[in-house]
Amino acid sequence: KGIEAPLLVGLLANNDPAAVKYAEWTGKTCRNDGLRYELRNISDPLDVERALIDANEDPRVHGVIVYYPIFGQIESFSGESQDDYLRDTVSYKNDVEGLCHTYRTNLFRNKRYIEGKKCVLPCTALSVVKILESVEGVYDLTLPVGKRLEKQVVTVINRSEIVGRPLAAMLANDGADVYSIDIDSIFRFTKNGRLTKCDDTVTPESCVRQSSIVVTGVPTKAYRLPTEWIKKHTVVVNVSTFKNVDKEELLGIEGVTYIPQVGKVTVAMLERNLMRLFENYRNDKEEKEGDGEDNTGVVVKQKQASSSSWGSPMQIYTAAIVTVLLALTIARSK
Predict the structure, then answer these.
(1) Segments of the chain assigned E as strands
(2) Out of 118-127, 226-235, 281-290, 304-313, which region has the weakest mean confidence (pLDDT)?
(3) Three-state SS for 283?
(4) Per-residue model confidence as pLDDT tens digits over 183-202
(5) Cβ partners under 8 Å of residue 4, min gap 6
(6) pLDDT digit string (tens) for 77-126?
(7) What is the pTM of this model?
(8) Which positions ≥6 away from 199 have C-beta within 8 Å?
(9) Fewer Cβ in 10 A, N or C end of the chain?
């Protein structure tokens, strides 16, 4: 008997062009792959928390995504950043972005399972990892997990809680030596959860010049990474919605691999996370829906018909893999 397809609920409470575009991509990709997607537009940002709690408690919902920014860093009733508070309000059983406190804590501790189930990872950071895994010579698959990026030096120009910090941690957990650059500081992430603040002798230029992998995520049109810092055969990934590097100049450097955008792969990772949550917690949610009684008093399990069903969970995994491969074909150039 067919299994009802997972349901992803998106909460949009802003007019930010990047957020709106991300919501459009999410809905289109989910529908194309046979997944259910429901976008809930919220006119008053103060109502997002209530909508989020309602989605958490709804057993029909298998994943929730909140499109940020909503409040940004504006002081709020719940603390310095209402957006951070909202991220931690998403239930770990619904968190397709992998950004709630539970998943962030496990990531930084390099703890890969929760209650015997594999953890969800932040989807944008995960998209970068998957892209790097596809580039020949970056990951050494002959080594055990946790050592496959040993001897690789990486510079990540962004330390946001959504992308830069989790990405630095993930790459360090895989064995890389990672320099994390933000507007006023540089930190070095290394394996075993070690974090060191660099002194003034370490500069963005010195980090980039020794790196075999550079990830740019500066959210401004004015920023450009100086291409003279890039050494031969470097892999450069741009995760910003803006072009942080001059593509023509960059591709003039011998052996450089450039990935100009990760948006489509990020959506594929979002689907991957949705499927993991579906596999991990679907039975819990079905039990939560409860049993009902027919008109004879016999207890029966409540079922809902759906026009979108899956005969096997493997169909979902196949859809995501195809999406990733297509996205990589479009995004990569050499």
Answers:
(1) 3-4, 7-12, 36-41, 63-67, 113-114, 117-118, 153-157, 177-181, 186-190, 194-197, 213-216, 235-238, 257-259, 291-293, 299-301, 309-310
(2) 304-313
(3) helix
(4) 999 999 998 888 999 999 99
(5) 304, 306, 308, 309, 310
(6) 655 588 889 999 999 999 999 999 999 999 999 999 998 999 999 999 99
(7) 0.84
(8) none
(9) N
